[in-house]
Amino acid sequence: MGETEVGSGARDRMLHRARELRAPWRRRSREVGWGRFEDWWTPSVDALCTAHVAGDDLSGPCARLGEARARAGFGIGPSLEDLDAFARAVGWEQVPLPLARSLAEGWERGGRSRGDCQDPLTGLANSEYLRTRVGELYRGVEDGVPAAFGHHLVVVALDPALDPWRRTARLIVLGHELRRFFTRGESVCLVNRARIAVIATEDPDANGSLTRLRDEVCWEHGAAVWSAPLPSSHREASALLDSLDGGGDRADV
């Protein structure tokens, strides 16, 4: 038997093993909510299986999988859950952090072309939307009291000294949990990769709400929480947003 035939046979066996790996991965993905096969499968699925069977570096295939998920409109949460399903299919206890990072970075690249006001990594409204929304609250100030006077900013801040990937991973989880906490039409927006600002209406129980937010959501992630009233003018509000983006002073709750 010639070398070409031997090489061809080895490739066929490797592709067969990759297809065999795809089946248990698919079963576990369905367990975490992935539906039709045609929604779940992409060429990057097979590329990841093949790379694992061949013993190759999985960072590139994970990044391509993340890009494919983002282009198809799937969120970062389901994408990471699918990668966890792959990890369980190959017998790992959890996804290695470098592979989760590769998938997230690929997902962010794949989401940049969507052209909306959403940050592709966290799913939160982006900083441009935050500034636009704050500006809207100062419209018509000449005609009376601006709507901004009935609103305040709730700021959630992670420690900027954290490793950038760990901080981003916490930010992703926080974004999901904050959208579940704020359910009355508040705008939950990303300021930067360490801070989130929520435009909320004045609440008679503001201190109680902030305490619940700190205890039920933020404490676990080591995030600080405070409230800042919107100032009397749009110019001052823009300066406030600048200070939040740059670090700024704060008062802990």
UniProtKB/TrEMBL annotation:
Stated name of the protein: Uncharacterized protein
Species the sequence originates in: Nocardiopsis alba
